[in-house]
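Please, structure for the following, as tokens.
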Amino acid sequence: MEIKLKNKVAIVVGSNFIFGKEICLALALSGAEVWIHHFNEEDKIEQISKEISSLGGTAKVISGDLRKLEEVQKVISKIAKNSGKIDILINNIHVLSKETIEDLDPNDWIETFEFNLDIPFLCSKEVIPHMLRIGEGNIINISATAAVTGEIGPHYAASKSALNSMTKGLSREFREFGIRVNSISPDIVQTSTSLSSLSKAVANTVLFLCSPYATHLKGEIIFLGEEENIH
């Protein structure tokens, strides 16, 4: 099954985090124009951009601290102005640390939610008007099985669980307007597959959700991992 995303404009928020490179490559090699967002790892992101270009894809690099609304507005506005539209938003944010509630500093709790939940919220809020203008769009939130299992730590699990709930809420609100919102929840802790294989599985699932084959999927949480570790 070949998936073509020619003439689609995508932004991958948090391309410097786990899964980011594979997602960017998959989207670009399927024909999408990919905006590679990063926070502070310019060298790493430039390498991804160069690799995409060498393979015949189109990629542009953009940075910004998206915890700030004004930065989100600036980034989204620049992409829309330069590319004319935004079809796909991938929220790929993963701030995690294994800590018990006893050791967890309140500031770490706040920071985890700022990244894992607030940034996807702000980016979705700013992108949705552009999608409404063209009558369609795809928002994909990269979550984790920890949202269900509670692994890694209460702060991480709670932030990803809230992200899944936001996914369903946004889907319910905008599905009638051609905007599909879904979540991918990989098992980054106990998966029996390698990180490389898991990254490719996440990227391929992103492609599928962005394709015409997935128009019936709205508000879904797609788990990627060992079944016994999820339920």
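The CA atoms of residues 79 and 193 lie 35 Å apart. The chain has a mean pLDDT of 92.
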